[in-house]
Amino acid sequence: MTKLTELELSEICKQLGELYPKNISRVYGGNIHNSFKLDFQNYSIFLKKNIRKEKFLKFEYLCLKNIEEYSNKNDLIIPKINTYFAIEKAEILLMEWIEMSNGSQSKLGKGLAEMHLKSNELNPAEFGYQEDGFIGLNKQIGGWKTNWADFFINCRIEPQLKMLKQNTFNSDVIKNLITKIQKELNQHNPKIALVHGDLWSGNIGINKFNKGVIFDPASWWADYEVDIAMTLLFGGFKQEFYQEYYKVLPKQSGFDKRVTIYNLYHVLNHLNMFGDGYLGQANEYIKNILNM
Question: 19, 12 in Cβ contact below 8 A?
Answer without folding.
Answer: no
